[in-house]
Specification:
Layout lengths: L3 E3 L3 H11 L5 H19 L5 E7 L4 E7 L4 E7 L6 H7 L4 E2 L1 E6 L6 E7 L8 E5 L7 H12 L5 E8 L1 H10 L4 E7 L2 E2 L5 E2 L5 H6 L3
Parallel strand pairs: 1-10, 4-5, 4-6, 4-8, 8-9, 9-10
Antiparallel strand pairs: 2-3, 6-7, 11-12
Helix pairs in contact: 1-2, 2-3
The chain binds 1-O-pyrophosphono-5-O-phosphono-alpha-D-ribofuranose and uracil (URA).
Length: 209
């Protein structure tokens, strides 16, 4: 799977094991989602362009590298994607942030849009779409459809946990989008929940159940 990167870094895998545990508290779940997102961001930004710059140290001139190329935007899919934003902004403080609000209809499992607000210059940015869960793929596909309608052409998707069904759907709908995940689980169950997964990410981040 050329455009799918599963991040098997030991720190990510260790934190993911605690995240999945049904006894992990809301506080700890929130902290772990944020920590994992920061570590995933480090990997998902590995190919950003840099340019050489001269920096005057107190001793001499150092040849250094700084980010060049497109500016970045982070687009969480509400609600659960919000849990991934802060640690990414800590690493990329100049990134702009857009919001796409989608929820899955409990009967059809199809995404329903309820809010969208994007930076004016989103089309010119390298966009990171973030959401902890990639289940049927419907929400990710709808969010990326929307971004492409707004002119975005450079999009990277970051999910903490996915499954084969969601990955396949994404690859068919958006083969140009690089995907970064911490795990691709076994399957979806009859309610379109990821097995073994971690349950409902939004509820576990916000303590709503
Ligand atoms: C969850 C999750 C994804 C979506 C994944 O959100 O955060 O957005 O489901 O499922 P899919 O791949 O089948 O579309 P949910 O709709 O539960 O909303 P929430 O974030 O507000 O809890
Ligand atoms: N949304 C979640 O939060 N968890 C799943 O397993 C599937 C969709």
């Amino acid at each position: 799977m050329a455009n799918v990167h599963v991040l098997d870094h030991p720190l990510i895998q260790h934190k993911l094991a605690i995240l999945r545990n049904k006894n992990t508290s809301v506080k700890e779940f929130r902290e772990l989602i944020s920590e994992i997102s920061g570590l995933m961001c480090y990997e998902a930004t590995r190919n950003l362009a840099t340019q050489e710059v001269d920096v005057e140290t107190p001793v001499a001139t150092a040849k250094c590298r700084m980010l060049a190329g497109k500016k970045l935007a982070i687009v969480p899919i509400l609600r659960a994607g919000l849990g991934m934003v802060d640690s990414m902004v800590d690493l990329i403080p100049s990134a702009k942030i857009g919001h796409i609000g989608l929820y899955r209809d409990p009967a059809t499992h199809k995404p329903v849009e309820y809010y969208c607000k994007l930076p004016d210059d989103i089309a010119n940015r390298q966009v990171y779409v973030v959401d902890p869960m990639l289940a049927t793929g419907g929400s990710a596909i709808a969010a990326i459809d929307f971004l492409k309608e707004h002119g975005c052409r450079n999009i990277i998707m970051m999910n903490v946990i996915g499954c084969p069904e969601g990955v396949k759907a994404m690859q068919e709908a958006h083969p140009d989008v690089e995907m970064y995940l911490a795990a691709v689980d076994e399957k979806l169950n009859e309610n379109a929940y990821i097995v073994p997964g971690l349950g409902d990410a939004g509820d576990r981040i916000f303590g709503t159940k």
